[in-house]
Give the backbone structure.
Amino acid sequence: QYANTVLDGENVPSFSDVEFHFHMTINQKKELGFYLHYKGPPIPKYSYYFAAKDNTPAPLDASWYPPAGISSTKISRQFTAHTIPEDTERCGHWNVFNPEQLESLLEGTDGTLMVVFQFDEDKMTGEGNGDLKFRWTIPNFRHHLCSPFTSRGITANNQLFVIRIDRKANDGDYFAFVFSRSQNLPPMAMKIVAQSGAVLGSVDKPEEGQALPPLMIKRDDLLRLVSPIDTLVVELIVFKGANPLEQLNNGGKFESVMSPAREAPKTAQVGSQQYVVVQDDL
């Protein structure tokens, strides 16, 4: 009954007192799109997921602590606006749910759909003139949904990639990996470090021509070494030959970029406005 509909949310202030609001679109195929209008660009990195209302509390030994009223079994995958042109104030994802996925999520509930949205507090920094060293810092890691949790976009050799941490459904273990559609990424190595300095895992530079394998983190190690309020750090080395698009003005340091694309971004019509489309699959 809501096909070809645009739902418009109320304006609310962000953490920096910039007003923003949401749009949800439902096309003829009843596929959902979700968009943000942020009235003071640049738009901060943000993530969100969909959830059915459920007051089941999280277990005391949970590796992820959902917000109140959210069940870990009645949620969608998480979407992240990881790469946004700096001068835009409108962006979003154009197909986040099809009718079958929505029906499955709401089955057995009162039919209330919630959008759990956050401006992400993680940071990505980097430095180097030869080998490039990136450091992705995630405060309060166990309060983040890893389904997946995605870093800001990074470019090397003119190719866009992100780091993602995902959680395995069967045993609750985690794995971190570099994600890109490009086949021309430079060689890399990765390490994950707890706030205490303990190393949870690492993967070395693979043989020439091989991709960096996922880095596995055992759930038991995470519970033992990372408290609910601890910071987790992912260290990524991009070996010599990388050429980031963005260079800072202090000592040749580099950082991740939010707008690395050289070609014009894709857009979608939402009401009377054009919105930049964030492609979660890059």
User: Anything to note?
Assistant: The first helix runs from residue 99 to 106. Confidence is low (pLDDT under 50) at residues 242-262. The helical segments are 99-106, 219-225.
